[in-house]
């Protein structure tokens, strides 16, 4: 993020905040009439200076939660109190969604995963407990008074990330803030101040006390950012990745046999960037940002350290690293509490990412193309992009050859899909038909017969009912119990 004059940011924010005030000033009036303060805080204020507006608004107030709830019930069309434990009450009115939190302070017990919450009595005190100065700005309602006790606007103008208190104290209080630094580096393009980065390196092991779900949330936000590489590199450089995703820094030690000019870690970051470039718009095959594709791109080679072998002639090999890597990715994603569907999709892509290699040297049969599509299943479009992104060679002729080969494979897939309904490859006879033809009931033999017909379908394409019946009878004669 290039440096910007604070006055320029002020002008940008004014147009955004004027719109916010028009919608929410009545809420400020209601709190004031009850003798309490109300201020827009955190991300919505920061984003206003960047020219962004959301319908979700975070507020801080001097009112206790029960008073906040009473006022919001009078103002909104719906309210909720799932955050009451932390002093937060939410409400919706039209398109506007607000969450109002009582001024508070909080700190972590050194051995606890959860913060201890204590309510405060001033806005400045509440802002002092925020993660970073750029998030410690506020705008009081209804009069739109700007409050910036920690020079967050100057930091935003300079494109730098600093903490309101000392970074050591801030990260001791909430270790997850170190992960947020990586997220803001990726989402806002901010540089982390040297003293903040030093504290992150010093306190990285403390991240281990934070729950997997909270860590995963920040990691996902970093990966889904416009420039995730910035945040990922920060996690690795500070040692946070050693706690969160140790397989990633481990790749720095491995030299890729196909890309000797860079280590596997640098290669993986490049693949991530290239995969992002291949994401599509909302109506495309892989709308970006796509979490599954991005995780798979980042982790596709994590199996290489475990499979590295020194071969005769000085060559280095990584045989079956895609299979080992898929197992490692599954284990790590489970540890980070990812859902089963996301984990399965990522590990399938990692396991399949080398399948294409060799296509250019020896043309595949139609059967091989069918198996490629069937094995990829719903991940085919992502696999197309991961495979293309995995080419980071500086050899222009080699890169063009690989690109042309994959163009050819995609053309063949499209041709076969048009001819054979390739996305739903199944035998020409279903289970009921198999039982009727063979005169048997549900049994193991029906499954074996189905697999036999599916193999024929893969190998030869559609057989038609007559030939499929003949093949089934011949198989049955040879395999009848």
From TrEMBL:
Bilayer-crossing regions? none
Swiss-Prot/TrEMBL GO biological process terms: RNA repair; tRNA processing
Alphabetically sorted, this entry's keywords are: ATP-binding, Magnesium, Metal-binding, Nucleotide-binding, Nucleotidyltransferase, RNA repair, RNA-binding, Transferase, tRNA processing
| InterPro entries the UniProt entry points to | HD/PDEase_dom (IPR003607), HD_domain (IPR006674), HDIG_dom (IPR006675), NT_sf (IPR043519), PolA_pol_head_dom (IPR002646), PolyA_RNA-bd (IPR032828), tRNA_adenylyltransferase (IPR014065), tRNA_CCA-adding_enzyme (IPR050124)
Is Cell membrane tagged as a keyword? no
The cofactor(s) it depends on are: Mg(2+)
In this chain the HD domain maps to: 264-405
GO MF annotations in UniProt: ATP binding; metal ion binding; nucleotidyltransferase activity; RNA binding
Extract the signal peptide range: none
Claim: RNA-binding is one of the keywords in the record: yes
Q: What is this protein called?
A: Poly(A) polymerase
Tell me the organism.
Serinibacter salmoneus
């Amino acid at each position: 993020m290039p440096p910007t004059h604070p006055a320029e940011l002020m002008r940008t924010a004014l147009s955004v905040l004027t719109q916010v005030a028009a919608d929410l000033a009545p809420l400020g009036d209601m709190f004031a009439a009850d003798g309490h303060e109300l201020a827009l805080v955190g991300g919505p204020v920061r984003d206003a200076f960047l020219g962004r507006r959301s319908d979700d608004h975070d507020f801080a107030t001097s009112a206790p939660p029960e008073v906040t709830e009473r006022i919001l019930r009078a103002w909104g069309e719906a309210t909720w109190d799932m955050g009451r434990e932390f002093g937060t009450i939410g409400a919706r009115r039209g398109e506007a969604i607000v969450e109002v939190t009582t001024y508070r302070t909080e700190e972590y017990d050194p051995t606890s995963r959860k913060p201890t919450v204590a309510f405060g009595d001033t806005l400045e005190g509440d802002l002092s407990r925020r993660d970073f100065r750029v998030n410690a700005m506020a705008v009081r309602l209804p009069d739109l008074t700007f409050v910036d006790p920690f020079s967050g606007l100057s930091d935003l103008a300079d494109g730098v990330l600093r903490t309101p208190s000392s970074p050591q104290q801030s990260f001791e209080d909430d270790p997850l803030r170190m992960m947020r630094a990586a997220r803001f580096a990726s989402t806002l393009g901010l540089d982390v101040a040297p003293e903040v980065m030093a504290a992150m390196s010093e306190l990285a092991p403390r991240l281990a006390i934070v729950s997997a779900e909270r860590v995963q949330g920040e990691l996902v936000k970093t990966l889904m950012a416009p420039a995730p590489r910035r945040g990922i590199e920060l996690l690795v450089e500070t040692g946070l990745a050693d706690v969160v995703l140790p397989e990633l820094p481990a790749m720095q030690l491995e030299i890729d046999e196909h890309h000797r000019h860079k280590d596997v870690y640098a290669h993986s970051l490049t693949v991530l960037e290239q995969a992002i470039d291949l994401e599509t718009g909302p109506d495309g095959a892989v709308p970006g940002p796509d979490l599954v594709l991005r995780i798979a791109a980042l982790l596709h080679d994590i199996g290489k350290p475990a499979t590295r072998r020194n071969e005769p002639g000085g060559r280095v090999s990584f045989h079956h690293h895609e299979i080992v890597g898929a197992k490692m990715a599954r284990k790590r994603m489970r540890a980070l509490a990812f859902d089963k569907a996301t984990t399965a999709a990522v590990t399938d892509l990692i396991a399949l990412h080398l399948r294409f290699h060799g296509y250019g040297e020896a043309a595949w049969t139609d059967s091989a193309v069918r198996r490629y599509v069937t094995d990829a299943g719903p991940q085919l479009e992502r696999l197309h992009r991961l495979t293309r992104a995995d080419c980071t060679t500086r050899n222009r002729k080699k890169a063009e050859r690989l690109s042309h080969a994959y163009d050819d494979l995609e053309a063949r897939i499209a041709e076969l899909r048009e001819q054979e309904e390739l996305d739903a490859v199944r035998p020409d006879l279903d289970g009921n038909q198999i039982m009727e033809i063979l005169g048997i009931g549900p049994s193991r033999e029906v499954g074996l017969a189905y697999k036999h017909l599916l193999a024929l379908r893969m190998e030869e394409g559609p057989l038609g009912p007559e030939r499929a019946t003949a093949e089934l009878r011949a198989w049955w004669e040879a395999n009848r119990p």
